[in-house]
Amino acid sequence: MTKALGAFYPRDRSWHPKAYTPEYKTSVLRSPQKPLVSLGSTLSETTGPVFGHSALGELDADLILNCARPGESALGERIIVHGRVLAENARPVPNVLIEVWQANAGGRYRHKKDGYLAPLDPNFGGCGRVLTDEEGYYAFRTIKPGPYPWPNGVNDWRPAHIHFSLFGSGFAQRLISQMYFEGDPHIALCPIVNTIGDPDAIDMLTAKLDMNNTIPMNARAYRFDVVLRGRRSTLFENRMEGN
Amino acid sequence: MVKFEYLKETPSQTAGPYLHIGCTPNFIGNDGIYARDLGSSMVAEGAKGERIVVSGRIFDGAGATIKDAMVEIWQADADGLYNSPEEPRGDADPRFTGWGRQPVDMETGVFQFETIKPGQVPFPDGRMQAPHISLWIVARGINLGLNTRLYFADEDEANAVDPVLQRIEHKHRIQTLIAGKIDGGYALDIYLQGDNETVFFDI
After folding, report:
1. Cα–Cα dist A106/A117, whole Å
2. Which pLDDT does position A240 carry in this prediction?
């Protein structure tokens, strides 16, 4: 039996986007209007599923190759996205399953509902996954996704982005977000980005070019750290000893 | 003044309409990348407990069913134990994962989980919670995943003293969390807005 960790710090909901954000039109009819009922952490929230390396395939963290025909590779700017997953208490979070999905270099998704005129890349599926190591580090290889238009305003374009889904050690840590690229002028224009109010919060979603980890003549690196909710120590809560 | 060295949580963004690509690629026919969609099967042969099917739909504020949402569930096994390293009370049934993930059907909006009926789990103060399943709902237009719970209509006694349900001030809203008994399982529709808006939790 492993040592159980404590309750999660309350989520700062003023830091996250509000549910109702009319500039992002789809949120208008999909945003709960009544106050959330405060529950906090019971065992149902502090526990959560874990995934081992056996759940993952050999090429899962290589989007350049994981859907490519033998001897071929995905089209586009080759990049490595890497970083660390920490908790709010600055401790690394190991064994986090990170799932990513993205458009191809032309801004087209491999999805039956995406009708954008940019072509599919037969060698690019757009999904990958990786587990963080004992120090919370992860890395995957992909191509830089393209920006694309979407039906919201008359002429709205999404900045280039990669979707991230993360599992921590408890169900209450579950998080889905999006990673943007430093220097993209579409970030400031995007109604989805701007559902977030605080510029510092938006900056947390912006990956930075990392020349030190760039592989010469091969692939540029972007650094993207993620912070999941932190947990209290169980001191004075469930166990008085061996805390 | 001492400054605590806490980090801010990474802010959420919507999962968008194409979440299937990353979470359930086989569901949309993007096969050959992952062997199977994670969370598509929760129960292995020989798992303890009563097998049930839990299903439902999600309605937006205009009364339309949402066709592009994804639901994840997390629940205890038949004995009330979670299959998690964070479970301090003992080992859960290894034949039951406790975690499921299903996209809603893109035509009908129905989500469906083949699972088992969970046992009871204690509240932090030691009182027992009624059998329940935790739900996490993401979709295009949902900026931060929604947390709710599913309770069972045939657990009246346990529901009546459940410490979480008791916390709901407007008692008529409790029924938004109670799944009705149907043939082969339980059904619960989720309403994002309106008079019947589902109770969502800040967990």
Report:
1. 9
2. 43
